[in-house]
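Action item from last meeting closed. Structure (356 res):
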């Protein structure tokens, strides 16, 4: 009886803690959910069989992963103004708001964003596996989700800016310069191209589809492409336009700065925003090093993309599974996974053969 009362009091306390942040049902639910987590923890702590496995090598990382998952799933309730918004975010987190897209040479669908010693300014460099300061860039998918697990000892600030606002500012000060960015540029695939792809592809920085302005920009990939035979050299006018664009993207009036904290999730539309990150210094202990997890999605209800995006995205039509980095391990299992997800969401797959 006393133990049950203690657990009930614990749940009530956590509900009140949620309401302390604001009078809303989602916050009350957030508190209740944490009360449930603590209740489960208390009950498990009393089980003798857990003492047997607690010292197993796999127990600690499994417990950390489970705790991270539980806390991450609760955050939409804390941040959302109502249950409908929280449910929509949870759907996106679970992959029900889009089909996950592969992200590199290994054709993987989830990336651990942490320093793996990658040289960012190289022909194979990827920013997510380095600790370098990154250029403002777009990822190769409609939607990118970043979930924070650990923060750096120093640095690693997240930066987000509006490509639409930057384009408007550039067009206002120099229309001819802005017009140059609507012509094709060439971007390297960083030696991660699929067997049916060239090592580089053309894409304008800005283009329109159905009256909507879209942006695709990654200076590191553009400069890497300049070292690939067959890629046209940049003109002085193009270099000037790109330099001016990068300067505007870092204009404090257009840029938002934030430090993601453990449990935070950042969702960005790659067609109208660009993101960056400051250089960071990591903790010495491996378990404390800066780590985020990244998911790319192709949502079912997003508008058509410019036709000039097709070499990079493989498809541009509304309701198609598009974007991502196909990589070199994309096989029948990947295709089947995407087909199941697409069918569940009423989406279409590009008609392309795959190995295996």
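Sequence:
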């Amino acid at each position: 009886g006393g133990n049950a009362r203690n657990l009930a009091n614990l749940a009530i306390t956590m509900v009140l803690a949620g309401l302390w942040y604001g009078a809303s049902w989602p916050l009350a639910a957030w508190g209740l959910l944490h009360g449930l987590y603590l209740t489960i923890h208390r009950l498990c702590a009393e089980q003798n069989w857990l003492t047997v496995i607690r010292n197993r090598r796999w127990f600690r990382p499994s417990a950390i992963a489970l705790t991270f998952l539980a806390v991450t799933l609760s955050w939409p309730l804390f941040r959302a103004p109502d249950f409908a918004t929280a449910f929509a975010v949870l759907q996106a987190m679970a992959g029900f708001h889009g089909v996950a897209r592969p992200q590199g040479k290994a054709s993987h669908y989830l990336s651990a964003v942490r320093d793996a010693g990658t040289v960012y300014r190289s022909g194979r460099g990827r920013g997510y596996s380095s600790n370098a300061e990154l250029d403002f860039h777009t990822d190769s998918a409609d939607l990118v989700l970043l979930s924070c697990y650990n923060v750096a000892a120093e640095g690693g600030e997240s930066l987000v800016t509006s490509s639409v606002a930057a384009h408007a500012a550039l067009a206002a000060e120099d229309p001819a310069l802005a017009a140059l960015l609507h012509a094709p540029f060439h971007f390297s695939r960083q030696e991660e191209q699929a067997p049916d792809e060239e090592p580089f592809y053309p894409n304008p920085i800005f283009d329109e589809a159905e009256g909507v302005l879209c942006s695709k920009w990654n200076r590191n990939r553009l400069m890497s492409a300049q070292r690939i035979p067959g890629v046209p050299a940049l003109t002085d006018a193009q270099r000037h336009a790109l330099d001016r664009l990068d300067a505007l993207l870092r204009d404090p009036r257009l840029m938002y700065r934030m430090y993601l904290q453990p449990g935070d999730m950042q969702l960005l539309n790659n067609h109208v925003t660009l993101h960056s990150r400051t250089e960071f210094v990591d903790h010495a202990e491996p378990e404390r090093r800066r780590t985020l997890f990244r998911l790319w999605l192709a949502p079912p209800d997003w508008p058509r993309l410019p036709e000039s995006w097709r070499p990079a995205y493989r498809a541009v039509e509304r309701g198609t599974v598009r974007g991502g980095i196909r990589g070199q391990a994309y096989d029948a299992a990947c295709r089947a996974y995407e087909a199941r997800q697409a069918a569940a969401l009423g989406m279409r797959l590009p008609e392309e053969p795959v190995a295996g």
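Note appended to the action item: The CA atoms of residues 27 and 45 lie 27 Å apart.
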